[in-house]
Amino acid sequence: MQQQPEFIEINSALRLRTPKKSDWDLAYPWYQNPNVMYLSEGVTNKTYELEQIYNMYEFLSTRGELYFIEVKENENWYAIGDVTLWEENLPIAIGDEEYWGQGIGKAVIKTLLKRAKSLGMTKISVPAIYHYNIGSQRLFESCGFKKVGENATEKSYEKIIK
């Protein structure tokens, strides 16, 4: 299997970077944001401490390719969220609300679908998006994911990679 690249350039102002464990603390503010927690974790009454973030990243990085989403501003790169390329899930969080609704998620997903194809993946599943997270549903649908299941609280999606 191909080694995970340190960087995947999406465009001149957007890239994915493989974070070192020493970078994982950068995610702390994202998972202190009640809106991020509600949309990604379905909770309204808690946030993640560093230990929970480390546990999450340890889990994800052993299942797939964990990346930080970075934007370039004033010649400097800033981490604004995270994403993991994994056949059984494609969790993405834009942790900095300032960057919501700008098409960053779509650019990231489309780039990772190309990476998935180059790795020989044939399907990517997204097992759970909350019904109220319309933005994520639209994001995955706009990238060609099809709804394959639904329960009382969530929808699941998948994309066949050709």
Automatic annotation (TrEMBL):
Domain of life of the native organism: Bacteria
Official protein name in the record: GNAT family N-acetyltransferase
UniProt xrefs under PANTHER family: GNAT-FAMILY ACETYLTRANSFERASE, SPERMIDINE N(1)-ACETYLTRANSFERASE
Matching Pfam families: Acetyltransf_3 (PF13302)
Any GO molecular function: acyltransferase activity, transferring groups other than amino-acyl groups
Stored SUPFAM superfamilies: Acyl-CoA N-acyltransferases (Nat)
Gene3D superfamilies referenced in this protein's UniProt entry, alphabetically: 3.40.630.30
InterPro entries: Acyl_CoA_acyltransferase, GNAT_dom
Native organism: Turicibacter bilis
Record-annotated N-acetyltransferase domain positions: 14-162
